[in-house]
Write a structure and sequence with these properties.
Number of strands: 8
CATH topology of the largest domain: Beta-Lactamase
CATH superfamily of the largest domain: GAF domain
Helix content: 40-55%
Radius of gyration: 22 Å
Number of helices: 9
Number of domains: 2
CATH architecture of the largest domain: 2-Layer Sandwich
Largest sheet: 6 strands, antiparallel
Shape: elongated
Structural class: alpha+beta
Length: 269
């Protein structure tokens, strides 16, 4: 986007991100005057933006030197992003194998506060161009990826999600009733995979399974996506392939069911 034709709100964001980048580029932090000089901005403008960024936790100011440094909130976001990138790198060969075995688009997503975030995909030669961009958030209950992850949430966290009202409707097939969705997620948990029957977008069907790490926590989900309605037999076959892919990625992430069960046995003795 041309900065000269941006709206006032976007111009403010441009300045705020430029300030974050300038602060992050210095190990010693930056003073108010240094930032104003480096970005050719009025000192009053820099002070106002830094005050808001500090209030939100993205910037910290040292009491003595008054120099600005990145806040803990930025560091938390950075750690989360690095973790997702590393996990996507670990999963990518398995996504490629899944795409080749099924002939379907293979995708990887993580759960973030009621949504899923797409972090990687392996496309087929005929994959539709109408794809959700990487990094975009989509309501979890509308997708197979999201339902696979919702079904694996701790009960308290799941109840908190189900308590949100109203749940967004994407298509006439989207499950928006909290009671009905809860029963559906119990079925997902029992069979180990989730199915999206045109619930996020018309003309798209998906099958997904959760991926677990060394602590048995569901940290991501993998799916295959089709542009034609699958038969029950096809869904069953795809479910086997997707769950097997999720199992192999989980093993590489350190998941060992026998180890988890042993720990649980010790806890209840």
């Amino acid at each position: 986007m041309n900065r000269n034709t941006s709206s006032p709100g976007v111009k403010v964001l441009d300045k705020a991100f430029a300030l974050l980048e300038a602060v992050g580029a210095s190990e010693q932090g930056r003073s108010l005057t240094e930032l104003a000089s480096a970005l050719d901005l009025p000192t009053a403008t820099v002070f106002r933006l830094m005050h808001h960024l500090a209030r939100l936790g993205y910037i910290e100011q040292e009491p003595g030197s008054k120099r600005y440094s990145l806040g803990l909130r930025v560091l938390t976001l950075k750690a989360s992003a690095i973790q997702s990138v590393r996990f996507a790198a670990l999963a990518r060969p398995h996504l490629r194998d899944l795409m080749l075995a099924t002939g379907c688009l293979a995708q990887l997503a993580v759960y973030r506060d009621g949504d899923i975030v797409y972090v990687d995909r392996v496309e087929t030669p005929t994959t539709s161009r109408r794809l959700v961009p990487m990094g975009m958030r989509v309501p979890a209950h509308t997708t197979a990826l999201g339902k696979a992850l919702l079904a694996a949430l701790p009960q308290v966290e799941l109840e908190g999600f189900l308590g949100r009202a109203p749940l967004e409707t994407r298509t006439p097939n989207t499950l928006t009733d909290a009671r009905g969705l809860k029963l559906h997620l119990q079925l997902v948990c029992e069979r180990g995979y989730a199915v999206d029957m045109e619930e996020a977008a018309l003309g798209r069907w998906c099958v997904a399974a959760p991926i677990r790490d060394y602590s048995a926590r569901a940290v991501a989900a993998v799916s295959v996506s089709l542009n034609e309605r699958p038969s029950p037999e096809q869904i069953e076959q795809l479910a086997l392939q997707v769950t097997d892919c999720a199992r192999r990625i989980s093993q590489e992430a350190g998941y060992r069911p026998e180890s988890v069960n042993a720990v649980l046995d010790l806890m209840v003795r």
